[in-house]
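Hi R.,

Quick one: here's the Metal ABC transporter substrate-binding protein sequence you asked about.
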Amino acid sequence: MKKSIAIFAIIVSFLTFTACSKEKNANSSNVEKNSKIQVVVSFSPLENLVRYIGGDKVEIKTLIPTGSEPHEFEPKLKDMKLLNESKLFIYNGLGIENWVDKTLGNINKDSLEVVNSSKSIKPIKIAEKGDANHGKYDPHIWLSLKSAIKQSENIKEGLVKVDSSNKKFYEENFKKFKEKAEKLYGTYREKLSECKNKNFVTGHAAFGYLCRDFNLKQSSVEDVFQEGEPTPKKIKGLVDYCKRYNIKTIFYEENVSPKVSNTLAKEVGGKIKKIDTMEVNKKDKDYFDIMESNLEKIYLSLK
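And here's the predicted structure, written out as tokens:
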């Protein structure tokens, strides 16, 4: 009898242990299933795109602080740790993050999916050879609706690789993004085609891909990488350019001093207006809020 009771106790203990283990595994599985995917992006513009495609399935961390130059950034130990702890790293490409290859060579890439968001986008060449700090291509692809569609597709594919259980969610969000981008592009292609003047002036040459989309031409106070003070000769050339094309609006970016743009505007009897390159992140505006605002400002300046 005692032997029977002992055997019964062992069986009950085993079943209880098994049940607890299954419950623990189920809970653990549930946490993993419901937890957000850790995504690291190199800089702010990519955060706008990832937020749209990833929605509430992702937690986004940005490596480069707002206002810092992406090509001058040097990852610290905390950045390497962040990458090692994340599932997905997304960078812009086209040479703007010249530290990426070296950084990825120093971390465990087995558990990290890496996405170059510029993949399959036709670049605009700005130099025959890039130097130590810059690539040879204009990197501002996110300011083009057409290019942003491709970037978002690359982001979607990366998310699907690391989180296949939510594949349908990411694909639906990409489909919505593409439809919205194409609709906005169609609206402004029609509006901008009506403008006889196709020329505008910006603080720095960030809108090359947008110009390619809409057959426009930008002239700028600073170059693609916002380097160097403009010379008197450069300012005179811009004044002549504005007078030739009757340009009365001089655009400047949020993270750049408007001093030179103000000087230029006074010379031509015009005004300055802020335009958004997305390099300062805004949680209250999504990608399309910013792009529509930019396009409307450019359109009004050309009328």
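Confidence is low (pLDDT under 50) at residues 1-32.

Cheers,
M.
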